[in-house]
Amino acid sequence: MNHDLKESWIAESAGIIASGVNPRAIQVMAELGIDISHHTSKTIQTVIDQPFDLVITVCDHAKEVCPIFPKAVKMHHMPFPDPVWATDLPDDEALRVFRQVRNKIRRELISFVKDFPVQSQSK
Questions:
Q1: Can you give the pTM of this predicted structure?
Q2: In 3-state terms, what secondary structure has residue 73?
């Protein structure tokens, strides 16, 4: 989002646990010219009190255990497969899975957010 919609959105990312940034995610994003090698992994607790126009959960487990964001205008769930399950596959197959998920997120999430009415966010 920060790459494709940088003129209108600022995205934050957080998870249920801080597990680090997967090297395969770094690799497949670099293939698109997007450098996430400097990103860090953080938990929801670090951002829960921030005001957000939109909070999107992207995996079913997160939807089930994700707390309510008290300052979010809207919450929405968009399930995407977690490519980390492919960790035990041979490298070429695992990278294929990471690319598929990357492309699906980019296609569906960006399309959804692009049409979402911004209410309080200032950029």
A1: 0.82
A2: strand
